[in-house]
Design brief:
mainly alpha, 2 domains, 17 helices
């Protein structure tokens, strides 16, 4: 069995499923649901005819370009997961059907259901791939039947469980904005810097509202914090790559000296409750934005789109479109950029004076 699994490149490990597959799923979600949301918002706010026109009807429902991209999010996630698992072409193409079916059956928790089902379908497809002379029939049939069958059985309960847990977090944040603001901000921010996908986690849990705002705060604290406090070592290139890219670049340095993680994490513990208690910052765009921080400014775009046109998940939780005022914009700017930069620099300087962080500890590996 070990030889067979090795030959088929089936690696049962936490890294393969919890890091590689989860990270790829977030990219698939980004290229479908998130981009679709952005296109719809740009079209409606800037009156771009091509982006607001219904270009196709499916079951009497009209879809714009952005709507069509969002509609295919299940397929995009499944294919991305298959790619991360190094699935052969026949398996990869078959996952289009599996992902669509699973996301539809999973409801609000569709992304989590897609993660589990796509892994099962991909690995089973890989197991039978090129084992028969009629591979062109066997591989897609096995992949699709197992995938859709698994989706039929486990997607609805997984979706309900994920939705319920995410709802619990959001209700708890409303009831205890101070404590939950700290917890959500710190935990999601830490997840963003770790080699896992905070965006996928937020999407799976459907984090919107105040909890989504706290998640945005935590992610921004990590990205902007590391970018600014390491500016001396990494210059403008490091500022952009971390501030608009990912703080995950600092993981090798964190492994060498975990204390370099203290400043941005403390900053997130402060900006999270400020976001929930003072500014009541809500992230009512697509839930994936809650875990993006300043990556491509997706967190800020999510807040903006949520103000103008809340996502379906946010609407189900009582969100409503608003006209943002000066306080809303001030909160977004302070939470996203100003406070993370200032707090991280202050905490980093204190750590340097205590000898916890030394010269070169934050230099990005080449």
């Amino acid at each position: 069995m070990k030889e067979f699994l090795k030959r088929k490149n089936i690696v049962v490990s936490a890294r393969r499923y919890g890091i590689d597959a989860l990270g790829a799923m977030a990219q698939g979600l980004f290229c479908s649901l998130l981009i679709g949301t952005i296109l719809n918002t740009l079209g409606s706010q800037f009156h771009i005819g091509f982006l607001t026109a219904q270009i196709i009807k499916i079951n009497d429902v009209g879809y714009t370009v952005g709507g069509l991209a969002s509609f295919m999010s299940g397929s995009a996630m499944a294919v991305a997961i298959g790619y991360a698992l190094q699935a052969p072409p026949m398996v990869l193409f078959s996952l289009v059907t599996v992902g669509y079916a699973c996301n539809a059956l999973g409801g609000a928790g569709g992304p989590l259901a897609v993660l589990f089902v796509a892994i099962i379908a991909a690995e089973c497809g890989k197991a039978v791939s090129k084992e028969t002379k009629v591979d062109i029939l066997v591989t897609p049939i096995v992949t699709i039947l197992i995938g859709v069958g698994a989706a039929w059985v486990i997607a609805p309960p997984i979706g309900k469980a994920a939705s319920a847990f995410g709802g619990l977090i959001m209700r708890a944040t409303v009831l205890q904005p101070l404590l939950m603001g700290i917890l959500v901000s710190v935990l999601v921010g830490v997840a963003l810097t770790l080699p896992i996908s905070s965006a996928a986690i937020c999407s799976v849990l459907g984090l919107t509202g105040l909890a989504g705002g706290a998640a945005v705060a935590g992610c921004c604290a990590q990205m902007v914090g590391f970018a600014v406090m390491s500016f001396k070592e990494n210059g403008w290139g490091g500022l952009v790559s971390q501030g608009l890219g990912t703080s995950m670049l600092q993981m090798p340095n964190i492994v060498k000296n975990p204390r370099v993680w203290i400043p941005p994490t403390l900053a997130s513990a402060i900006t999270g409750p400020i976001a929930t208690c003072l500014f009541q910052l809500e992230m009512n765009g697509a839930a994936i934005n809650s875990g993006m921080g300043t990556c491509g400014l997706c967190g800020q775009l999510g807040v903006w789109t949520g103000w103008l046109s809340p996502s379906a998940a946010a609407l189900e939780n009582g969100a409503a479109a608003i006209v943002p005022g000066a306080m809303d914009w001030a909160g977004l700017i302070l939470i996203s950029f100003v406070l993370p930069a200032l707090l991280s620099v202050v905490f980093c300087e204190l750590c340097r004076r205590a000898g916890w962080i030394k010269e070169g500890d934050l230099t990005l590996p080449q």
